[in-house]
Amino acid sequence: MAAALARLASGVWLRPCLTDDPALPRTPVIAAWGMGLDSTAMIIEWVARGRPLDLVLTADTGSERPETYDYLPIFQRWMDVRGIAHEIVRYAPKRFKHWPPYFSLLENCLTNATLPSISFGRHSCSQKWKIQPQDKWVESWDLAKQAWARGDKVIKLIGYDASPADSRRYAHREGHVDPRYDYCYPLRDWGWDRHQCTARIKAEGLPVPVKSSCFFCAAMKPHEVQTLPAWCLRLIVLMEARAAPRLINVEGLWRRSTGARPGTMTEFIRGRGLLPPLEIAAIVNGAPVALVEFQAVAAQFPVEARPPLREWIDRFNEGVMRLAA
């Protein structure tokens, strides 16, 4: 398999048995598309080089940046024109205990009065909301089941580029072993950084996507928070206010204050005047209490009859919009 993977990376595709016999099965190839810059460029160039691609998988946390959702249909059309199969997968919670049902990472955090795991220095939110849903979908995919039945693996393309930041991410994953998958990092094989990825997407005649992340991700830079619409900023304030009583070792979504930014995005939003001070105060002082009251009422109903948390969030958004007006 290592030899086949090396040929795949170099552009010379041979089947796992290292023959050119078309009657023999080929190792299935999946690309993980994060809807961002790197993975988009990776797929474009991979296809342009004539390499095999059986499926593009995208995991939707339900909480991506608005620009990311705007880009989704653009690239879906690009794939459709080229006959590339693609699927969107989502984590589907099943056990809600006494909570209202939730179906996004935002709702998960609000339900449990916490922050995404990255704010605590971990990455389980990515594992739960991105990697697991993709793996679960592949488990029911015929090409994967056939490959595993014959002792083969599925090749998964990951869009880590050759920049220092992604080199650290790659180093974290290096040595990761999965009996079902072999992982391939084409951008690193090609030596491409974000500048080359940008140029490749432009050369394809496509708009360049923004960096993909949840709109409250701790990995966002201050200038990225500044570009968010007001409704996203309000939900950030709500998330931090809801989690605040339980935080001990971190200040907020950005963990701790640095010379470049505060530990909470709320303080940054307040300091930059991105939301009116009275609006921020109203959210901090009132919304967490209202959410807890909603949860208490929902707990009185059997799970199948409980209103989902999305209903409360919609009412929250409507309320603060009226307040802002």
Describe the structure.
With 325 residues, the chain is of the alpha/beta class. The protein folds into 2 domains: 2-203, Rossmann fold; 222-324, no CATH class. Helix content is 49%, strand content 6%. A 5-stranded parallel beta sheet has the order 3-2-1-4-5, sandwiched between helices. The chain is globular, with a radius of gyration of 22 Å. InterPro entries: Rossmann-like_a/b/a_fold. This is Phosphoadenosine phosphosulphate reductase domain-containing protein.
Characteristic terms for this protein:
325 residues; alpha/beta; Rossmann fold; 2 domains; 14 helices; 5 strands; disordered N terminus
